[in-house]
Amino acid sequence: MHKLLRALTTGTVAATVAATGLQGGTASASVAQASNKPIAITYAGFSSMNGLTPILNKLNKQYAGKYSFKSTAYPYNNYAALLSAAIAGGNTPDVFGASWTPSVYYAREGLELPIKPFLKAAAINSADFPSGMYGTPTLVNGVNYSIPLDAFGTAMFYNKALFKKAGLNPADPPKTGTQFVADALAMKKAGVKYPVIIGADKTTQDFLYPSLVYQFGGVMGDPKTCGALFDSKAGIAAATWEKNLTYKYKVAPTGPSVGEDLDEFGKGAVGMVMLPAINQGALLKDLGANLGVAPLPKVGTANDEDFVGQQYLWVFKTTVSTTPQGAKGVAILLKAIYGQELKTIATQNGIIPTYSPVLSAVKTMPFFAQQDYMVQKGRINPAIPNWGTVTGVPLYNNLDNVLLNKTSVSAGIHEAMVQTNELTATLPACSD
Amino acid sequence: MSSLQPSQPALTDTGSGQYTGRGEAFPAKAGNGPASPVLAPHQAVGKNRRKRRLVDDLKAYAFLAPYLSVFILFTLVPVGFGIYVSLHKWSTTLGNQGFAGLSNYSTLIEGQGYYGSQFYQAMSNTVLFVIISVPLLWAIPTGLAYAVFRSPAKGLWRILFFYPSVFSVTAFGSAWSLLLATNGGSVNSILHTDIHWLTGVPMAWLSIDLATIWATMGFSFIIMYAAVTQVPRIILEAAEIDGARPFARFRYVILPLLRRASIVVIIIETIASFNLFAQDQIMTGGGPGYDTTTISMNIYNQAFSSFNIGGATAAAFLLAIVLAVIAFIQLRVSRRRA
Fold it and tell me: For burial by CB atoms within 10 Å, which of A248, B47, B80, B225 has the most?
């Protein structure tokens, strides 16, 4: 009975949304045709797409009278609230760009359109995306709704000057967990105040903890049940290794404040940190030639797949995107983004594009070769709505307690999983 | 009607056989003289009064209309709609998903699920903050107000104590975070310590309290200073003649006379402290763990991270009820003492 009701409700909602979209789309398209007004294609996303405006200007000139392309930048910190308000107010953008897992939420709620027809219309070959970032890992109910735009891996940054001070070879950064600890101890012996800082906050742990879990052969969650799976041998091994750096090997200070790993490393006070690779540009400005960058050391025993942060694009079911002319406009926009815009993002922001025709064009840039390795070997979040952005909160709060030695590793990780499962159960896309 | 008006003075029927002399028409006694061809005098008076009252009412409403329309549109309607939302399963993106009765409330009150269990922790964290911050946010501005009142260069002191209030919470929150950072913060560097100002409890609360008091006490200071300046000098002089020292004058003369201003400050600061959000978000992110997560953060996360507007609205109404009860108790206690 419950399943029937659920199916009916989902069906009704989907049908309503679809019908509204189609009717509205037909109406707006006919209105546009009748009044010869251009069809407005709207894009919204993080403000990092700073090269988009000239491209939209060019498109607006090229398609004058037929289409009008507009974009809105959403600040990263409250994009979810702004997007929700836009959807609730009937101003849903046609194309949206953000982290990958929010797309899963909207797809599960029936608010997105399958992406494949748009790829075909835009002549974007899905084989040009890294295999770990499109296809099976990004299926939602058997359908792909989003495409990767850019990504950044989890990197180990090290200070070459402090390496030299400790008698270490800056050209030979640690490649395993054991070497990492040995190098940190050498730096400590040489008087380096902070050989390592392990950020306990979400910004760092969003990247580091899943990377270590994957390295130890674990998984973070199960998309089918929206359930967390990190309370495992791998999950505990990952947290134990992090905690040991502070309390067993004593190479990291206790209780660093939010963002202090990045800040202090930038000041030249820290030997090694493990952070999102997106920080490379800023750290290069701070440390210049003393900045060393390497993939994460292989701490675990199973594989060397590390977590990659990502930005994806998807198409919302709107009054425009559901019409043939509107869909054509969306495809034109996507083609422009995956051509010139992606190259601009890469060259201006140093973010690695995940579309191989563009990537091959910029691969020779200073730190792209290493990041390319991280991304090609990387793994994205599980296809669970808002995983990492929302459902990661209990994990990182409890991991914080573990790393502050307020609780044991096993108790902290177990509590994190219980709370995560309670939290995912509150998400409409998981609870129905 | 004009033929019935006396030359002077015009009196008003109070309904008890008395006349008030407020310029109303004089009533004709029943059976006296010929009946009015238009209206009986008492009817004319009644109609006149009603008309005047109506005009007065309309004038008042005309003046109130701009505010009332804003109040209705942006307060009353949202509150009413909020009650409706809190009784439904309401998704941020899909809207109304069906009537839920009181389940959003019972989930929180019974501590069920993630947000239910977090609700109590967040509420107790918030209450702890209120207990620490409100007395200080009243006592410090009050003490400073009296000190400035007695000091020279009052204008300078007023500017100094008020100026932090002009900073945005993001600015002062970030500044305090940098000052109090564990490993690279100025405070630990100067003191040669590694105190976990932001990552340990109770230091994290102390840090948030310090930052909040520094940044927000200016407003309370101005209210209390204005109240201090209103204390009649004659009373202070009488106390001085009677031998009361400055502290005694403050304790036994000034403080009792500041009761009303104090009530205002305490109620405002209590409500503001219960709504603590930004300092916390910027300085500690609700951590370590959940130790500084407040009820406002809980509500925000439930609404905009979990898209559960129904539950978040229910939590907001529970907070409003708690605030109303506290404000009521504060008023009752202060009135009883008065």
Answer: B225
Split at pLDDT 50, 70, 90, the class of A310 is confident
Predicted confidence (pLDDT) per residue in B50-66, tens digit: 899 999 999 999 999 99
Distance CA A341, CA A343 (A): 5
10 Å CB burial of residue B178 (0-12, 13-18, 19+) is middle
Count CB pairs under 8 A between chains A and B: 122
Q: Per the CB < 8 Å rule, is A269 touching B184?
A: yes
- Residue-range domain boundaries for chain B: 2-70, 111-337
How many residues are there in chain A? 432
Are B173 and B282 in contact, with CB atoms under 8 Å apart?
yes
CA end-to-end span of chain B: 53
Contact B270, B133 (CB under 8 A): no
Distance CA A118, CA A139 (A): 16
* CATH tag, A2-151+309-376: 3.40.190.10
The conformation of residue A154, written as its DSSP 8-state character, comes to: E
Res B27 pLDDT > 60 = no
Contact assessment for residue B144 and residue B227, using Cβ atoms and an 8 Å cutoff: no
In A, residues 95-154, which contact B (CB 8 Å cutoff)? 105-106, 109, 111
Which of A74, A103, A66, A116 is closest to A91 using CA atoms?
A: A74
Architecture of the structural domain at A154-307+390-431:
3-Layer(aba) Sandwich (3.40)
Contact between chains at B182 and A88 (C-beta distance less than 8 A): no
pLDDT over threshold 60, residue B4: no
Q: Which pLDDT belongs to residue B37?
A: 53
Higher pLDDT: B18 or A422? It is A422
Domain positions in chain A? 2-151+309-376, 154-307+390-431
CATH of B111-337, one of 3.90.1150.10, 1.10.3720.10, 3.10.310.10, 1.10.1040.10: 1.10.3720.10
Is residue B19 pLDDT above 60, yes or no?
no
Tell me what pLDDT residue A119 has: 96
Residue A11 is predicted with a pLDDT of: 41
**pTM, two decimal places:** 0.81
**Do A2-151+309-376 and A154-307+390-431 have matching folds?**
yes
Would you mind telling me the total number of residues written for chain B in this entry? 338
Residues of B in contact with A401 (CB under 8 A): 288-289
Q: Are B283 and B207 within 8 A, CB to CB?
A: yes
Give the pLDDT score at B28: 45
Q: Of A116-120, A237-241, B10-14, B333-337, where does mean pLDDT reach its minimum? A: B10-14
Q: Where are the alpha helices (DSSP H) in chain B?
A: 41-71, 77-86, 103-109, 113-150, 154-162, 169-180, 186-191, 203-229, 233-241, 246-249, 255-257, 259-274, 278-283, 295-300, 309-337
pLDDT digits (tens, 9 = 90+) for B136-156: 999 999 999 999 998 998 999
**Residues from chain B contacting residue A13 (CB–CB below 8 Å):** 94
